[in-house]
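=== RUN LOG ===
request id: a7f3
mode: sequence -> structure
chains: 1
length: 882
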Amino acid sequence: MCRSKRLGLEAALPPAQPTLSISGNLGASHAHLHASPFPFPPMILQPPRSSEFHPIPRWRTGHLASELMVGVMLLALGSSADADEGCGTGEIEFSSRGPTWVHAGDQGRGFGGRSPFFDQVCNEFIDTEHFRLHYSTLPGSVSIPGTAIDVAVSGDRALVAAESSGLHVVDIGVPGRPVVVASVPIPGSPRRVVTNGEIAVVLADNAIHIIRMADPVSIAGRVQFASSPRGLAIEGKVRPGRLEIIAASNPEEPVRIAELPLPGDLLDVAVAGERIAVAAGEAGIVVIDGSDQVHPRIEAIVDTPGIATGVAIEDPLIYVADGLNGLGVIRLGWEGWNLVGTLPAPGVATRVIAKDRLAFVIRAGKLVLVDCSPAEQPQVLDQATFLGEATGVGLGEEYAFVTVRDHGLQAVSTIAPDGELWLRQIQDQIHGWPDTGLRDTLAVAFERAYDVFQTMGFRPPIKDGDLGGGKDLVDCYIYNLPPDGGLAYTHPEDPVAGDCTSTFFGHLGIDNVGVISPNRLKDVAAHELFHLVQYAYDRFEATWLLESTAVWAERHVRPSLALGGDVRCWFTTPYATLWSRNPSCRMYGSVHFWLFQEQTTDESIVRRCFERCCAAEVDWLSALKSELTERGLDFNRQLAEFSRWNYATEQRDDGRHYRQEIRAAVDFQAEHTALPVLGAAVDPLAESTGANYVQFHGPGRRDSLRVTFAGDPALREWREVTLVATRARNVHREWILDLDKDGRAQGVIPDWPAYDSACLIVANGDTIGSALGAADYRFTYSAVETGASPITAVARAAPNPTSDETTIGLRIAEDRQAVRLDLYDASGRIVRRLADQTLDRGDHRLTWDGTTDDGRSAPSGVYFYEMTLGDEIHRGRLTIVR
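=== RESULT ===
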């Protein structure tokens, strides 16, 4: 599973006051990734690096007093000092009796100085030559069904709005061990939640839902809107173009009491007492006097440098999440409301809440703590980076509770041991790995995969220096992933300057499930590590390429691994575009495409494609085509050969194609158990880069099988048609059919009774960018057994020329022969189908009365007839003279 950072502009901030305010439509969101998030460098606590790696497993290990606990980055700044007691280092010595802990004292020391506000958490780790494996339990976190998108806090309860699953009430009385105690399904996709302790209001699609926070928690009322609100506060709501105030004193019967048109693209709203502030996109901040709730009035409109996406109020200050311009601070003075302070920062600021002149900002998926005293000079105190994208934040007395996309709710302490405000992980001492077998298997698996990829000539994964888990090693975090989090993930963190424009470093995560087999664990380790190798070239290449080549890499680390599962998924839809991701398992199943490429070229083909993507900034398809051209190969011809290889798997494996066992067989789009087959078609049709497979069952009753194909001539240069015969013990014969200028072809299988079946393979090349439409991919086919000719004689048309009607005679030697007779004009357009029927043995006469299919008399001129009987075609010419 490959996971990436995503940045959404869709989390609302929950001021806690008694009525409601909501905001307008939101533009497209984009991810902005930056190497240095703030003006000053972060300082990370780390122990000294071992200079030695023992070939016999003997790794540096210890309790790391670090900023990164299962992906939550807590940046520590300050002067040099010793590491905290209890977080020492040591060694694990492996012997026949198992690992033994050897305490080695307190050696941890901050990089460039240890912060007095550093994180107290001790993270158990083990170092190998290239990796640091961390084991954690992620204190202060709880999994939330669906995608956690927003949070509001009141007392010892956090209310989490989650897309696709509703509202979840979390008991945060013990912040280190939050527990979901109630859930309320909400129709639609919840995006915002606010609460005053007695009621909660959830915004979902085009409605708000009022929740009574009693036992049991339940929906009390609902207000529907014509368009989707965007911002929400207990007082009112903001819809596109206007503020609405709704009285919710009776939750079962909410009432609209006021409406106020507003300028701009309304995105968020905050309420404090009688004052309302609305984030209005490019229009800035709209300040509203709400002392008269029935007649609210605009007090001021304050322009901001960027796009106001989030807002919070703490009189006399208003805080603005100002899009690409970071944080803005607005103050009420003698001259009214004015922007007095800004803090530009890379990335998009989307949400903000405030307390005691401290602003908690969601920026680029991180939580940033900003000191706004004085308001003219806001300063960053700290930031926290999570495994996924931070989407919303709520404040308790000493903790911030952050919704993290795909990872639920995470508590972060805001009070350091000496009383200073700072972001840090909740303290939770961890001593000893619960499963040393998991630890040892991963340690060996990562190093083995690392060595294999290096031997193949790939770049090593980019290490994070001192920005990650405390050393210049690749960090892997082993912990309990959320229920829907899969087995593992790879997380890109920040770009790195170099010869590629999209080189990133990142970290890995593995689920501590304890039931996964050692071999599967090795595959997972190889797969996720190869994603970091890919990021060393181009982090933003197509997901299909990243996943299919990562599975390919697994096969190089463990060559004996058979292909099944995901490849079987691909084989059910061979007609789809090669890189189709529908269903999603198909991109993992595309591994056999790269196995085919390296077997028909060489092992370097995948690496060379990534090198081209890096150096020339081209997409993977252009890179592959260039590599094939250098080897004298054509991409479309390769696709046709690929379609033939895919027929020769599982029970049809003849030992001449894939070296690795593929436990899957391609699906047929049509199968025929009886012959003849005349003018048939398939459904679904193969798309660009896809292939259709049609099977004819034997054994034959006649000497040969003749198969005819008729397609659109417009597709002729991109299409290749193959006829394959198969018999016991997987003996295949192949005939590549020549398409004529009309897009037609035919092939004959001799000794047809000796074969068990035949297959017609119609492979399309890369037609993307051409003028071809869906109808151009259509084709028909026929299959007829032949031997002694069933037609003993065909008489010419007589009379010829004619002014009225003419007759064609034929003699048939066998019963039940399918006969078709078509008449064409000189341009090749069919004007009449004279026969399409089954005839028995004997003499027959087929007459044309000189009319077309629409009953009109055919004009004078030359005409052509074509008689098809089984696999035989007879043609003739006749003339009409009026």
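=== NOTES ===
The chain has a mean pLDDT of 78.
Residues 715 and 872 are 26 Å apart (CA to CA).
=== END ===
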